[in-house]
Amino acid sequence: MYTSVVPTPPDARNDTRFWDLLFLWISANFNILAFSTGSLGPAIFALGLKESLLVIFFTNLLSATLPAYFSTFGPRLGMRQMIVSRYSFGYYGNIIPSLLNLITFMGFLILNLILGGETLAAVSGYQAGHGGLSWDVGIAIVGVTFCGYKVLYTYERFAWIPVVMVYLVALGCGGKYLTNLPPVVPASSVTVLCFAASIAGYMISWATLASDYTIYLDPSASTHKVFGFAYAGFFIPNVICEMVGAAFAVSMNAPGNENWVNGYRVNNVGGLLDEVMRPAGGFGKFCIVLLALSCIAASSQCMYSFCISFQCIAPLFARIPRYIYSILAIAISIPVAMAGAHTYYTSLISFTGIIGYWAAAWATIVLVEHLVFRRTYTAYDTTAWDTPSALPTGLAALAAFAASFALIVPSMNQVWFQGPIGRVVGDVGFEVGFGLAGVLYAVFRSVEKCVCGDRKA
């Protein structure tokens, strides 16, 4: 038995510290990556402060419901998120979302390492991509993931505290220079929806690992309680960090803030924050280092679920110790992060958009399976998690997933591709994918059940 992916038995699900779930997600999202995501609105999409704040608030308000809801699966089923996915996609069909999940969290790991490295480079006075990435960051991430679930929870319980203090210092140093500059051009549906797609892609991606961190929680606890703690952990830190990022990005171009612009041009948001906190002297430098290390909290979870997703692909991969995957991930991500530092914002926009497409389609398929076809957690036979003949064939899920991209692609609006719909109205790929995949799956799954019958699971 391989405890990383084997469902947790009911007698082992006895953790009642639900506050830890809140702090886990606060630490994972209270970081410099969320700050940089918020800065996209003014810096890349040329939105004003009001438009940016409204998009940030309402997009997070809606999209945080997905990872929060999937968090409720862990206590009731004791299964990792990619194992739950097998009950829609089937044993073999689920290899595809597992592989996509690997790519997703490898990408997030790379983005976090780029930001951490650039922020440390800003403190050291080097230019982005030339100062290198501190190996200490990578080693710390691997060290946390080596220790597993319990140590990860303990670390995340406190990791958010210094980051909050750093943001308070940043607001104290730069607050008087914040200005609500009017946008150069009026906001359009294209820019608003493209910014919303970046935010939603960042948030929805957490749904693909949400139950990984609730498999030891007491199954008798209220589902609303688990949802509430998880939702607060996703919504609150992302809204705060993204709004602060948008506020500083808008104010960069204000008269008297030329040093902010120079710092941003050299080292992106790390350089911007270094200039903002320059009045604090050495203490400001110390705060910047703490902020750079905040990427460890998010990256540790990305790494942990990266390893779990690898083990979910097939029994062969489950036999390989998790630390091997951690070393592999760092060996790949650090060189790629060094190479990608020059195109960070382009990478961030493209990456969050792409993961939003597949994650939205995947999430709605799993949701429809649960809400329409199973309707209760007792309808899952958790003993059949690794029995292909007992699980659904996965044909309905794969067909709905693939067919949804027939409309997702024309609805895309990315730096490297603009579909005919996306070019006119903005990036609505993840909204289209979410709706279309759900409708198609409901139809295809009904046909699948008629043809193949009800399987054990």
From TrEMBL:
The keyword S-adenosyl-L-methionine does not apply. GO terms for molecular function: transmembrane transporter activity. GO terms for cellular component: plasma membrane. It comes from the Eukaryota. It is found in: Membrane. InterPro entries: Pur-cyt_permease, Pur-cyt_permease_Fcy2/21/22. Keywords: Membrane, Transmembrane, Transmembrane helix, Transport. The chain crosses the membrane at residues 21-47, 53-70, 91-115, 135-152, 159-178, 184-205, 226-250, 283-310, 322-342, 348-368, 389-408, 428-447. It is a multi-pass membrane protein. Its main location: membrane. Belongs to the purine-cytosine permease (2.A.39) family. This is Purine-cytosine permease fcyB. It comes from Rhizoctonia solani.
